[in-house]
Amino acid sequence: MLDNKVDLYTTWGKLWQCGGGGQCGTCIVQVQEGAELLSERTATEDKKLNKKPETWRLACQTIVGDGTNSGTVVIQTKPQK
């Protein structure tokens, strides 16, 4: 997402983001397609995304692909419950 200059953060998220530590939750995205290409949720995500839909991930904690698979991942930034 960074390489493609995706606007990940809300206005407040730009000010309060934690720099990739998974502590602030400002980089939440919703995975619409391609979840099978993503890493498993981390313990940090499980804690931060408790009671959120399984399709929600923290972008800073999510790795796309493992070098042996390819495909398309479609995400929605700034999802609303």
TrEMBL record:
Pfam families named in the record: Fer2
Domain of life according to the entry: Eukaryota
Keyword entries, A-Z: 2Fe-2S, Iron, Iron-sulfur, Metal-binding
Matches recorded under InterPro entries: 2Fe-2S_ferredoxin-like_sf, 2Fe-2S_ferredoxin-type, Adrenodoxin-like, Beta-grasp_dom_sf
Cofactors, names only: [2Fe-2S] cluster
2Fe-2S ferredoxin-type domain sequence ranges: 16-64
Protein family: Belongs to the adrenodoxin/putidaredoxin family.
Name of this chain's protein: 2Fe-2S ferredoxin-type domain-containing protein
Organism of this sequence: Tetradesmus obliquus (Green alga)
Phylogenetic lineage: Eukaryota, Viridiplantae, Chlorophyta, core chlorophytes, Chlorophyceae
